[in-house]
Structures are given as C-alpha cells and as structure tokens.
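Query structure, 211 tokens:
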C-alpha cells in the first residue's frame, strides 16, 4: 500500500531498482570524456591546419627542388600531386573530426550530442594515420565508447532530451544508486506557539489549604 503522505516522485525519476551504482558512476564520467574530447580536438585542429599548410606550401617547395630529387620512374608532377592529395585529405579529415570532438565534448556537460560524440570517437581513429596523438586517440576511443554505451548514460541523454537539467540528472542517478529519493524542498517552520492543549494540567498541588 502506497503512502499517501509521501512526496510524489518527479517526472522521469530514476528508481533504485532501475539503476545500479556502476551506472551512476558512468554518468559522472561523461564530463571527463567530454573534457578529453575537447583537449584532443584542439590538438587535432592544430594538426589539421598544419597539414593544410603543408599541402600548399611544402609541395610548392618540392616543385622547386624536384629537378634535383631522384623520384625513380615516377614523374615529379605525380609525386607532387600525391603529396598534395595526402596532406589535403588528411588535413580535412583531421579538422572535421576535431570539430566534431569539440562539439560532442561541449555538449556532454549538458548530456547533449551523443551522436556527435560517438561519431568523433570512432571517426577520430583516422588521426592514427597521421601519426599524431595516435595512442591518445585509441585509448580515448576505447574508454569513451565504454562510457557512452552504458545503459545509464543512454538514459541520462534521453532525460536531457526531455528538458531535465544536467545537475538534476546527476542528482537523481546518485540518489537512485544509493537508494535515496531526492530530498523535497524544506519549508520554513513558523515560530513555536503555546497552545492550550500543551499547557500542563493543574493537579491542585499548589492550592492553599483551607483555613
């Protein structure tokens, strides 16, 4: 039988039976993944800009010295076009994944943009081809995918899509993990008053004896 005096549970309340403590811990790690995504995205964006610069200026410098370089059976023009294609594609792909990393990382603070996070974690592995932050990118992809595919994290993103603030989502998950309902707002009690019922009854012990 339900308690009629209990505080009603808010919308989308996460009950202790539906959430494990491990899920609540994973929800708290979402912003850690987001910070790492922003840091790595900034580094890869810098790298992408460098590859674009290399595509236009390094190949131009190679054209000036192509007459002195032995390229074997390949003509110097083919070598230069191959270098331009490699640096251009690598720079464009790295810059795109870097932007998606930053978008997904910023959105993780509000449990938004889970799709961008997944795309950047998987697509960001392409940066290994540039030999730049390869181990960091691989480790972050493994760690981030474990966190993002956690059932509790999926539920947190669904709750955010329904308009629940990120701080409230974390609070509900932690409360559910430890078997506690969110505390209702405290009311300010009024000043204590003495009611007639609370007065001590007079047992007649203080009456004066009859003369």
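Result returned for the query:
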């Amino acid at each position: 039988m339900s308690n009629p005096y209990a505080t009603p549970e808010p919308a989308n309340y996460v009950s202790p039976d539906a959430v494990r403590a491990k899920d609540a811990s994973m929800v708290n790690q979402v912003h850690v993944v987001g910070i790492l995504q922003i840091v790595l995205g900034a580094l890869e964006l810098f790298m992408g800009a460098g590859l674009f610069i290399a595509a236009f200026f390094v190949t131009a410098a190679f054209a000036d010295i192509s007459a002195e370089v032995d390229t074997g059976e390949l003509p110097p023009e083919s070598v230069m076009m191959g270098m331009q294609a490699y640096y251009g594609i690598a720079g464009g792909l790295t810059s795109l994944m870097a932007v998606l990393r930053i978008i997904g990382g910023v959105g993780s603070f509000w449990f938004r943009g889970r799709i961008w996070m997944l795309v950047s974690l998987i697509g960001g592995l392409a940066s290994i081809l540039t030999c730049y932050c390869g181990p960091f990118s691989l480790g972050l992809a493994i760690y981030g995918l474990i966190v993002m595919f956690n059932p509790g994290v999926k539920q947190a993103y669904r709750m955010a899509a329904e308009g629940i603030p990120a701080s409230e989502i974390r609070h509900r998950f932690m409360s559910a993990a430890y078997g506690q309902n969110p505390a209702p707002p405290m009311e300010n009690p009024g000043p204590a008053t003495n009611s007639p019922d609370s007065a001590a009854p007079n047992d007649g012990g203080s009456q004066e004896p009859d003369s």
